[in-house]
């Protein structure tokens, strides 16, 4: 049974696990169907990576970690980063100099301090 990608959008699609379509029950030879006709009721449910449709609603897929997943940092190390890193606090951990509020946090990667020379080596 040779089913090609356009079969799902064709009005002759049998929507069956056993037949490809009403015109070509065993599928077509090659990568194009000479009898393709777009189904007027077809609605393409395109979704970005990491999302899916459930009951015609776009929802984010849950993040699933492997069973043997181990975080690379201990919980205390994670808390220390949250308490001290300039990304979260807005100040240098060494000299307490404030970073400008106009920094785009999504694009700013290196949080080196120009006042005291502290270097962010987390990246």
Explain how this protein is built.
Strand 1 and strand 2 form a beta hairpin. It contains 2 helices and 2 strands. It is elongated, with a radius of gyration of 27 Å. The protein has helices at residues 75-84, 86-89, and strands spanning 51-54, 57-60. A two-stranded antiparallel sheet has the order 1-2. It has 2 domains: 1-64, no CATH class; 65-123, no CATH class. It is low in regular secondary structure and 123 residues long. The model has no long low-confidence stretch (mean pLDDT 85). Helix content is 11%, strand content 7%.
Topology:
Layout: E1 51-54, E2 57-60, H1 75-84, H2 86-89
Antiparallel strand pairs: 1-2
Can you describe this structure in just a few lines?
With 123 residues, the protein is low in regular secondary structure. It has helices at 75-84, 86-89, and strands at 51-54, 57-60. It folds into 2 domains: 1-64, no CATH class; 65-123, no CATH class.
Keywords:
123 residues, little secondary structure, 2 domains, two-stranded antiparallel sheet, 2 helices, 7% strand, elongated
């Amino acid at each position: 049974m040779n089913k090609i990608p356009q079969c799902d959008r064709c009005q002759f699609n049998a929507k069956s696990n056993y037949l490809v379509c009403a015109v070509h029950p065993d599928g077509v030879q090659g990568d194009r169907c000479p009898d393709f006709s777009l189904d007027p009721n077809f609605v393409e449910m395109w979704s970005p990576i990491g999302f899916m449709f459930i009951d015609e609603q776009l929802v984010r897929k849950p993040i699933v970690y492997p069973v043997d997943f181990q975080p690379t940092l201990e919980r205390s190390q994670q808390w220390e980063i949250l308490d001290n890193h300039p990304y979260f606090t807005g100040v240098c951990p060494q000299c307490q100099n404030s970073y400008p509020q106009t920094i785009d946090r999504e694009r700013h990667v290196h949080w080196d301090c120009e006042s005291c020379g502290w270097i962010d080596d987390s990246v």
